[in-house]
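Quick question: what would this complex look like in 3D?
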Amino acid sequence: MSQNIIKVKELNKVYNEKADNAFYALSDIELSVKAGELIILKGVSGSGKSTLLAIIGALSKPTSGSVEVDGQNIAKLPDLHSSMFRATTIGFIFQSFDLFDELDVHDNVALPLVHTGLSQKEIDKKAAIAMELAHISHKRTQRVKDLSGGEKQRCAIARALVNEPKIILCDEPTANLDRDNALKFIETLKTLKALGKTILVATHDPLFEQLDITDAMVNIENGKIVG
Amino acid sequence: MIFLSNEVVVFLFIEAVLLLLMSIAFVNTLGILRRWDFGSTSSLQYKLEKRAYLVVLIILFTLGFKVLQLPFFSFTIDKLSAIVPGAMCGAGVITANEYGPLLMSLKVVILFLTGVWLILNDEDLRAKEYPYFKAKFWFFTIIFLFVVIESILDVLYLANISILSPVACCSTIYGAVGGSELPFDLDVTRLLVLFYLLYGLAVITALYRYALISLLSNVLFLYVSYYAVVYFFGTYVYELPTHKCPFCMLQKEYFYVGYLIWGTLFLGTFFGTAGAVLKTIMQKEVHFTYRYSVWFNTIFVLLCSLYVVVFYIRNGVFL
Amino acid sequence: MPNNAFVNFLFLLIYRHRVKHSAIFIISTLIVTLFSSVMLLSNALQKEITSTLSAQPDLIVQKIRSGKAVDTPMEWADGFGEIRGVKSALPRVFGRYFYEPNGYYFTIVGIDPFDTQATEALERLLKGLDVKAFLSQDSMIIGSGVKTFLEQYRYLEHYDFRPPHGGRERVAIFDSFPPESNIVSNDMVIMEIDLAKRILGIDEEMSTDIILTVPNELERDNVMVKLILQHYDIRVIQRDEIAKAYKNLFNYKGGLFLLLYIIVLVTFVLILYQRYSMISSTDRREIGILRAVGWSIKDVIKLKVMESLFVALFAFGLGLLIAYIYVFFFDAPLLGALFFGHGNLPGDLQLGRSIDLGMFSMLFLFFIVPFIAAVLVPVWKIAVVDPVEAMK
Ligand SMILES: Nc1ncnc2c1ncn2[C@@H]1O[C@H](COP(=O)(O)OP(=O)(O)OP(=O)(O)O)[C@@H](O)[C@H]1O
Ligand SMILES: [Mg+2]
């Protein structure tokens, strides 16, 4: 597989563009990722990692430049289509897990499928598979607010997998985990890579420094890619 | 003081609420249309795209309830016939002053434009670069204009219904006594021939998607159907050869069948004409409208014919 | 089309947020209950009156002097009876009598027990009357409302009327109508015609008005012309006009109430708007999550609108049910009194249990439209929050 699944060209993201406090969160980003690769985005806090991931995941719009993901230019899609794109192509895993605390694990995992037009039965089946993959099946009827940190993250992983996305975007996935759970997460990453998923991880956790499955490390400083 | 009648109060209140919301949408629309630039990646453009959602949301809501308001309006004037002297049904009330028929036609026109807008919006959202964005919002400003006129007419019409001086009842308006009021000097037989011929034409043109002829035949069909229902099929609904009225069939005694009859006729001819209108606006064919046109026109014709057939089976004679 | 999963999720969310929704739900239910009760009641009263009036005479003739109705000579009836198309012409005697103890009016109706009665309703009421006993002394048959009032002041056997020309007329209470008969007979007092004339102060050869039966509807205009040819100083009233006058009255009471009610509704809408505009950071975060996992703005709007709509519909259904039970099973205490107005007597009347499609849609639109209108802008505001910002 050598096809570039992600092609970012001359990407800029400016906050408050016309105001005095204009802030260049990303400037002139060029990035290509091949299908099935695992890329680590490194950089200090505030360097623009999350911003880049959000743009690649069509969750926010660039100020200029082109972003082509899975053959689609997502830089300027209307909301209906960028949402559809997220729903079919992208799985997000966030630092603070971002789950519905009041709902149980299964319902959280099923969320991305609600608007796909699948029947509840099919959704349940897909959710079961995803929970199995993320090793959280045994807690399927438990409310998220009663889960431990590690379990929460496994729930989040299951949710990111449930729509069978080609690309998984992880933003500081281990920042809220102890070492044990962080290592478990890395094991999961290996499984996902084996499944052929393209994975981008934004992190400053040193654990990822000596990872043997990493295809590339990308350093971001002040919104620019260096090195 | 007709304004104190329950239905009138509710009707006007809802019209006012909808008008208020539409005004909000209208003001936003002007702002959007002025600064809209889909090519731009400025945060202003993204803000406008979000704002457009508010406008679409409001329009969907208001237009949706406008659709419900039309049968409710018919119901209201029907109900008013109980307090307006001389009126037996809505027909007398609607002709109580010169604003009535105008208002009623305007309401149907608005309903038609609403339908076109809904389809246009759907097509626009489905595409990736808002191809009909400006078209649909300009179109909305036109609808808004009509709605403002409608609201004024609402008030004028209702304010000018006198509950003291009697109005005519439907048998006077639709000429139960003496001469028929059919257009082009038609008699009922020829009217019926024309009715079924035009139905056939409407179906064929829809099946072959001849936008322009479909438009024409449906407009004619609507026109002829109105008379066919009032002067022929209606009498079978009422089972009374002298009862010629488009309104009485909306009443409970006839199982509200009027809503179904007029509803299917409207939908059938709407879809039959919408194709051509949409084609002009979008420069593109929309296919499903023709299919719906055939369906609703057919249901309408079957429903009308069924009344005649059932009457014949039950009584062995025609009226 | 919301699929199964969407509905499941919607209910789940509503259930989880039930505490948040409960305040609005309760207020909404109250609001629906109040106006549904009034509307159902006024509608039922209208129907009641219509059915009562359908038993009224076709035409009523009154003598007019300086614009006011005055007593009509009884002999006119003979002349009217000869007009073609008139089946019968009968003089009537009735009038209002002021009952001092609590300031209400009775309607006194004079009858000739040997003759046919003026209306079918009267005919029905008097069926099986023991005429001999009734005429053996000055006696009357009273409506249930009248009975209640007379009993309040311990008039159990008889009552002393005070005719306008002075003196007293002692009239024995012969019988009373069953309460469920209907509204119009509620304040009625029926007595022999000459007695009624004495109490009401009507001269012997006079009557209150003359009623005509004209079976053919198309004949009526003709008849009216001929009546006026016989006597120029008369007013002719058609039955339909009375029905409409009554309907006007009840409709307007409802209408006035509605106007006041709109103020309540607008207040409620403002509260609703405020309530839904308060977007907590949890709410924002939830929306951010949904958007991140692939929900579109449209999907979120749909979710939020459905959430409100569900609350509104549920409140509407419950409110309507309560109103229905209140009006039709408990006969609307308090509100009922309001609708009878001042000059009439309260009574236990049975309202016909009915709610038609038009009534239903009116109540529905009146509540749902402002409700949803109030939440549209707040729903939009929350649906378009920036997901990245919302999850920070
Ligand atoms: N809405 C905004 N307005 C202005 N500046 C913003 C906005 N959102 C983000 N920024 C700025 O953009 C920069 C990049 O933010 P981003 O969240 O991408 O950093 P990050 O590399 O993910 O940092 P961390 O490691 O702390 O998560 C930060 O300096 C931040 O303050
Ligand atoms: Mg970050």
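Answer marked as accepted. Residues A 15, 23, 25, 43, 45-51, 172 surround adenosine-5'-triphosphate (ligand 1) (CB under 6 Å).
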